[in-house]
Amino acid sequence: MELVRGLLIIGISMIILLENSSNVVGRYHYHKPKNKSSKHAGTGSPVSPSPDNAPDPEDPSVPSSPVNPPQVPSDPYPNDPGNNSTSDCIFDVTSYGAVGDGSTDDTAAFREAWKAACAVESGVILAPSGYVFMITSTIFTGPCKPGLVFQIDGCLMPPDGPDSWPKADSQKQWLVFYRLDGMTLTGKGTIEGNGDKWWDLPCKPHRGPNGGSSKGPCDSPALIRFFMSSNLEVSGLRIQNSPQFHMKFDGCEGVLINQLSISSPKLSPNTDGIHIENTKTVGIYNSFISNGDDCISIGTGCSNVDIEGVTCGPSHGISIGSLGVHNSQACVSNITVSNAIIRDSDNGVRIKTWQGGTGCVSGISFQNIQMENVRNCMIIDQYYCLSKGCLNQTSAVFVTDVSYKNIKGTYDVRTPPIHFACSDTVPCTNITLSEVELLPEEGELVDDPFCWNAYGIEETVTIPPLECLRDGEPESVQEVAAYGC
């Protein structure tokens, strides 16, 4: 009997202990995974591509996750709001008066929620699911306490077109994040740009189905801009139909972009997916981008950029440039694009510079890229010009140390798949090709790739044959090196 009584007391004690332990609220500590796999994207759920574009997970051509992603940012927020049982640091915009009906101006509520979250560590501005929030052009300014998270689980959008845009607001940008360190923009929601009325402005350069365009330019807002900020993460969101660039980073350092879905129509003008300039140490991973301009564009002042596991198309491809406009100096270095798919695009991987510029593009690697019905699969264009009035100039941005490895797939036969047009006076040097095999999507093989003043080597036989590439180095290579890489 005493033994039974003892066991009963022990059992009751264990039940009480378990009940008490279930009432303990713990704070989940978020550790950034070393491998940026599709299972981790901040607090947002992975964005599924549309059914038409969904990759087969068993398909060996599907890009894998990056092996060695850059170590940025470093643990941008210590508490994952998706697993945080307390509400002390979560600032729901509806608690600040946001209505979320798609027509009421909720700007003031977002600004108040930002102010409150900015003032505490690990603050979370939450735009909850089930709402459509309309806000006007806003600059969210730091510095803020460490670990700030802007979590969009619902839908966020600007006013509907230029006629609805407040006259006092800038028409060059919508959401701006300024002077921040360690911020995360994430969620499982949508940022809707309402761009169609901007695209159809009479002054907007607009590509028609037959290649025609109307004159421009005119102001249209970039949807999201990060300016003078560091240690940033953007993940999990669907961003679509921007009036101009979908996402822009300038003057930033330490940027991690993972699992985004960016989309706008094929003919939407100037709607680059991700644009970076004067920005260093960037990782762009596991994202789907389809739009009317460059899938990813890399401007001057960028270095140490790693792009992996990105699917582009339709688009204008992945571009470095344009660089050197208005006789300016431009420097870009250490750019890697790998394990990517580019489909139904006007360009594949491109370097474009204006005549008259100076500076250097160096240390560029394009590897393991699948092309599907792409024009200009591999292009260097040092005669980039948007009109017929561009004059020939002697100076140019020096392009050197460019590697193309394992570039395979199909091209649109309207243009040669390889086009290296280098400056008359500043030749391109140290171009390396290996395992380049490009076949026509339809029609006959185009066997006349174009080269002009381009120097390099073929480590393996290229398809189509590349007989125009010059061996060795130009006689003026020492003079060229003065351009400074």
Report on this model:
Residues 1-86 have low confidence and may be disordered. The chain folds into two domains: 87-203 and 221-293, Pectate Lyase C-like; 296-387 and 394-484, 3 Solenoid (Pectate Lyase C-like). The chain is elongated, with a radius of gyration of 25 Å. With 485 residues, it is mainly beta. It has helices at 2-21, 107-118, 196-199, 477-481, and strands at 90-92, 101-105, 124-127, 132-134, 138-141, 149-152, 155-157, 173-178, 184-186, 190-192, 222-227, 230-235, 238-240, 247-250, 253-258, 261-263, 274-277, 280-285, 288-290, 296-298, 302-308, 311-312, 318-323, 329-343, 349-353, 358-374, 378-381, 398-411, 418-421, 428-440, 450-452, 454-458. The longest helix has 20 residues, at 2-21. Residues 29-84 are annotated as: Disordered. Residues 66-79 have a biased composition (Pro residues).
Average pLDDT level: 83
CATH topology name of the largest domain: Pectate Lyase C-like
What is the number of beta strands? 32
- The low-confidence runs, each spanning 5 or more residues with pLDDT under 50, are 1-86
Tally of distinct domains: 2
Fourth-level CATH superfamily of the largest domain: Single-stranded right-handed beta-helix, Pectin lyase-like
Q: Strand portion, in percent?
A: 35-45%
Distance between the termini: 88 Å
CA gyration radius, whole angstroms = 25 Å
Characterize the main sheet.
21 strands, parallel
User: Any idea what the CATH architecture of the largest domain is?
Assistant: 3 Solenoid
How many H/I helices? 4
Coarse morphology: elongated
Task: Give the helix level as a range of percent.
Answer: under 10%
Structural class: mainly beta
CATH class of the largest domain: Mainly Beta
